[in-house]
Amino acid sequence: MIVLASKSASRRAMLEAVGVEFEAQAADLDERALEAGMVGSPPDAIALALAEAKALAISGTTRLVLGSDSLVVVNGQRFDKPADRAEAARHLRLFSGKVMHLHSAAAIARGGKIVWRQAAEARLHVRTLSDPFIETYLDAEWPEVGHCVGVFRIEARGPQLFEQIEGDQFTVLGMPLLPVLGALRELGELPK
Amino acid sequence: MIVLASKSASRRAMLEAVGVEFEAQAADLDERALEAGMVGSPPDAIALALAEAKALAISGTTRLVLGSDSLVVVNGQRFDKPADRAEAARHLRLFSGKVMHLHSAAAIARGGKIVWRQAAEARLHVRTLSDPFIETYLDAEWPEVGHCVGVFRIEARGPQLFEQIEGDQFTVLGMPLLPVLGALRELGELPK
Q1: pLDDT of A41-62, one tens digit each?
Q2: Which residues of A are less than 8 Å from B138 in CB distance?
Q3: CB distance from A144 to chain B under 8 Å?
Q4: Whole-structure pTM value
Q5: Is A69 a catalytic residue?
Q6: Domain count of the fold of chain A
């Protein structure tokens, strides 16, 4: 049994599907303050720092604590979740025809120390999206995609946005699951 | 509305999730006979020929017909679905520490002619699997993985088998969905 330092539905679902026993506990963390101190750092470094901070924020357990974070960069610009449908449409117009870089990171803490960390990147090639397509897409996907920094759910209509995806599905879902499972095996939490 | 020349649950699920309207119709086809005539052909060519044959086997419709096929090759050897749990374990022992090549192909027919076809490959790096792990895995995954040529369900415990996956999730699930969506847009079936 591990502790997942996150309430993220997609990260919970990944661990559940693969049979890892965990309890989820949201990390009490001022993400904005941490990021503010890292302006100008590479996206992988920011995602790793946030994953580590989440894992370290859970204390008072002898269990392994898994933290994870992901962020989206297009044209060198970091994107947050859209605040409303109009902003979602603006983001999609900006993504159109570009490569979306999705950085996912994970870190594992034990006894208040980080014992493992890894980042992975997926590159999602967004096709040229017409304005009518964007409206039709948001008719189907809003408000659900309001929770998604990339304005897509890969398990729903998200694939309609892309002509090619480089990187595995777990990185796309926000956590590099295969390296995490490898670390849990090395740390004695899962059978080899 | 298109016709999916397949009753495969994973292909149906992919089209449903992304919002493509279709009706599924199983192609009446002697796959073994077709393959027997292609012994020695590259896996991509065999998967493409089967996808085309499935699409062409549905007649009497003016709709676009989508056929798809996938096959698994490890160490140059083609693997079929395991007949029983003992064979599943044997396959997993053979996959251990190797690269699994998963070839997925799709073809679209209209009016009895193939108008589009494409194959894609995913490479799944299987980690070294211990015999106890294989038994524990099959305790959880048999008999469901009896329907899977690679002896894994990527949406369940399948990720436990792999240390790395190259290729997108749709290719892994048995149909190169992103190129299929691109073709359906070009053929006027989906909005751009």
Answers
A1: 999 999 999 999 999 999 889 9
A2: none
A3: no
A4: 0.93
A5: yes
A6: 1
